[in-house]
Amino acid sequence: MSHSSINNMLACHQCDSLLPMPLLSEGQKAYCGCCGAALFSKKIDAINRTIAVATAGLLLLLPAILLPIIGIGAAGIYNDASLVDCITVLIDTRNYIIAFAVFMFTIAIPTVRLFTALYISLSIKFNRTKPSLLVFFRSYHLLDTWTMIHVFFMGVIVSMYKLSSLADMTIDGGLFSLVLLLLCSTLVSVTMDQHSVWHKLEQALE
Amino acid sequence: MSNKALASGLGNCPQCRKLNVMYTEKQACSRCKTVFCARKPNSIEYTLAWTIAALVMFIPANIYPMMVFYSLGKPDASTILEGIAIFIQMGMFPVAIIIFIASFVVPLGKIIGLFTLMYNAKKPTKLTLKQQGKLYHLVEFLGPWSMLDVFVVAVMAAVVNLGFITSIEVASGISYFALMVVFTIFAAESFDPRLLWDNHQKQHHNTVTSDRKYKNTDD
Fold first, then answer.
1. Smallest CA–CA separation between A107 and chain B, in Å?
2. In chain B, what residues touch A141 (CB-CB under 8 Å)?
3. B10 and B61 share a domain?
4. How many angstroms separate the CA of residue B7 from the nearest CA in chain A?
5. Are residues A105 and A86 in contact, defined by beta-carbon separation less than 8 angstroms?
6. pLDDT tens-digit profile of A122-135?
7. How many CB atoms lie within 10 A of CB B193?
8. How many domains does chain B have?
């Protein structure tokens, strides 16, 4: 098969069917005709939106990590905890595996992912592509499965429900920051147009 | 629709999904430079290994207590299932259901689902390809959600720390549980769904001789 025709084809990542490259207009989504897997989609105004959402997410990062999320009080004693407190308590009690897991899945990986999204979008917007971007964008793909802010947020909600029967519970600013960070982190996946980013990188680096 | 990339000597990059001409068995993608094969090498073996590791971790995760609850200095340790039983006794059914699904049904279902997928990639079964594809998506999607209990315990241990009155301490069971969840995610990542379609095609080549009939059943 010649080299020119291969660029106009794609294979489904799920069932390996060879398909002609669909030409999509903004906002459309392509599915595999054989197995129904979502192939790719063309997003509206992807670069600008990703820059906006990723910047917001990075700004929210510090308050979400450092501000106390929830607190309880009983018999005149009050205690609250932030995301960092969760990790330090785990390290103090020598649960290193859990501490590492919580740190990676809720702080490290989402941060790297947001930063990568911002860096790549900015580079493409200002036409400053370099080969190192390939490494960045590959890491973005790899980290997609390992972002767990949404699960952590669900965990906080379950804890709130449990604690509300135990003692007087208060909600602090960290929870709001966490909700907004969660929104930004999810929105980045929605606005990021992976297919066109790869395409642009390929064109720019040739 | 029997036109597969593998049969044409082409390979799909797992990272950027660009179609590559496979000159050798293992090569770097022309676009993103990821080194890959047309099919993940030893996919079933890796998946089986991670799934068995997860299954082994499931046992201590359920035997050992998840957290120890100190009330006025009196310790009260509870495992996953004991914790759920306490919630049912207290009448907190929504939380009991969420915890039961997230920390017992989902991990076990994921392990069973992975075994089903691996069997489907080797032998013909009654499940249609659509169902197999959906099962794979479900296993992939559920991956992170089992971490729920780990995060709940982490938050509870940090917040409930009122000295002598009440405090919660993390116990050893949660470490095994977290490892189990990570292992099942690795298992789902190492499984190659294209093997399901390969196996389907192979089975039909063996049983159906007519090419026309083959094309109809493949849809």
1. 13
2. 15-16
3. no
4. 10
5. no
6. 888 888 877 788 88
7. 25
8. 2
